[in-house]
Amino acid sequence: MWLILSILSAVFAALTSILAKIGIENVNSNLATAIRTLVVVGMSWFIVFLTNAQTGISSISNKSWLFLILSGLATGLSWLCYYAAIKSGQVAKVVAIDKLSVLMSFIMAFIFLGEEFTKKSIIGAILIGMGSLLMVI
């Protein structure tokens, strides 16, 4: 199931870039990000209530709250930077640089989570980094 969801995530992320580039024309990038965020918040809470997941709020630990809030701040900063970048840049180049997050996540997962590097994952990470940079040049 994770593979199907991952593929769908990639499809929707690609659509996000194209739809955002069209929608951001003549709109301040910060305002566009705020509008997008409101839609995401509304949709997320709709799904929470639809699945009755709101009952789990009281069982969230302080540690989880802290890291979910920090993750939300990182997401917000990422989106603000992304929208500002696509406002003035070519989507294909912005997305290529943005996808260096895969490489950065790989390195941070090793440093902070203790995840293992394998020969295959190192080669893949190098190829992703090189591919992203080649798309920008």
Report on the architecture of this protein.
Helix content is 81%, strand content 0%. It contains six helices and no strands. It has helices at residues 2-23, 29-50, 62-88, 91-98, 100-113, 119-136.
N-C termini distance: 36 Å
Largest sheet: none
- Assign the structural class, choosing from mainly alpha, mainly beta, alpha/beta, alpha+beta, or little secondary structure: mainly alpha
Number of separate strands:
0
Question: What Rg do the Cα atoms give?
Answer: 17 Å
What are the secondary-structure elements, in order, as H or E?
A: HHHHHH
Fraction in helix: over 70%
State the helix count: 6
Oligomer: single chain
Beta-strand content bin? under 5%
Whole-number average pLDDT?
A: 93
Short description:
The chain has helices spanning 2-23, 29-50, 62-88, 91-98, 100-113, 119-136.
How is the topology of this model organized?
Elements: H1 2-23, H2 29-50, H3 62-88, H4 91-98, H5 100-113, H6 119-136
Main traits of this protein?
81% helix, 6 helices, mainly alpha, 137 residues
